[in-house]
Design a protein that fits this description.
By secondary structure, this protein is mostly helical. The protein is 73% helix and 0% strand. It contains five helices and no strands. The N and C termini lie far apart (58 Å). 40% of the residues are buried.
Length: 154
């Protein structure tokens, strides 16, 4: 029987989530009008940053799932819209720096914990990225850029 290490399993799960997101884009179309490269590049960079930080196992899976959630939520707006937003992809792109900051903060906090289960590491990756992304999104989409339905206060 082959034993799979948690770090290897984490990387596999992260890659599968990224490929599922790309498959959805290939089936349903590029709703952000930004190009197929974007759906490959963003998960690779996000997971690469998490890997470079040497976070605990399942952290990468959490970050990969979080970036997939952000991409699919943005795309779903244009999939359902009678008149799609052409610049919606910029709202996602300009919110990514917050996601990166969220990853850094979550990875640092996770490293300070002495005993951590795989599920806690997963939650740190998921919530860290989503929190940073959402805070940056609120700033960008409510000050300098109109993000359609995602601009809450405009």
């Amino acid at each position: 029987m082959v034993e799979v290490k948690p770090n290897t399993l984490d990387t596999i799960f992260a890659a599968v989530i990224a490929l599922i997101t790309v498959s959805i884009v290939m089936i349903k179309g590029d709703a952000l009008y930004i190009g197929l490269w974007y759906y490959f590049a963003v998960p690779i960079v996000i997971v690469g940053i998490g890997a470079a930080l040497r976070a605990k196992p399942m952290f990468l899976f959490g970050t990969s799932l979080a970036i997939a959630i952000t991409l699919i939520s943005y795309m779903s707006i244009n999939w359902r819209a009678s008149r799609p937003e052409g610049l919606l992809g910029l709202g996602h792109l300009f919110s990514l720096p917050g996601a990166v900051v969220g990853i850094f903060i979550a990875a640092i906090l996770l490293k300070r914990k002495t005993t951590t289960s795989l599920f806690v590491a997963f939650l740190f990756g998921l919530i860290g990225l989503l929190s940073g992304f959402f805070v940056n999104h609120l700033i960008v989409c409510n000050t300098v850029l109109y993000c359609g339905q995602l601009s809450f206060f405009l």
